[in-house]
Write a structure and sequence with these properties.
Order of helices and strands: HEEHEEEHEHEEHH
Number of helices: 6
Largest sheet: 6 strands, mixed
Radius of gyration: 26 Å
Low-confidence stretches: 24-32
Distance between the termini: 70 Å
Shape: elongated
Mean pLDDT: 82
Length: 212
Amino acid sequence: MMQKVIKILLVIIGSIIVIIALITATLVLTGNVEIGFDSNGNFQVEIKNNNDNLDSYDQIIQATLTTYPTDIFVYGEDCKFRKNVKFKQIEKLSDENLKSDKKYKVIVFNDLYDKTDLTDDDIAVLKKYVLEGDYALFYTGRKHMDAFIAKGFATEHVVEGDIGFALRHSGGTVIETDGLWDETSLEYYETNNPELLGESVFIFIERIIRED
């Protein structure tokens, strides 16, 4: 009787070992676990974070969805974001459309091909939320640069060679960033990398979060 019990236990233990081996092999093959020896010759098993399988663009996207909740409002043309990006495409700059309870808020005014109009009322709304509030602004375009300069959003030196500018808040100060986009960026975007604009927006967002 005892021998049968022992045999059954051995079969169960053997089955468990096989299952564990299969699970481990699957994790290793998918890159979620690394098995090997450290510099001292000790055997080690390292469980990798799922973020290790994401590229830098996806890692920033994931951060805005989880650790650093961010509202992204897009006004103007399509930014060609990746499908996992959550954003709000708005047809009008207004108090209603820019409502947010998130810590980080970014208005993306994408007018790369100068097709979007911008009225005095629109500029007043942007001034309220960006210059007087805590929203960041990422603008691509040339058409409205003179208006932005006249209203105190940007300075003269941005115009030469740049396609747009960005504004962020740091230490209670509005900081202007230029040089984010130029003719070279636009050409590369059109011919080689349609994700370049989306990546640029998220690099800007990462900077906002990092400096906070």
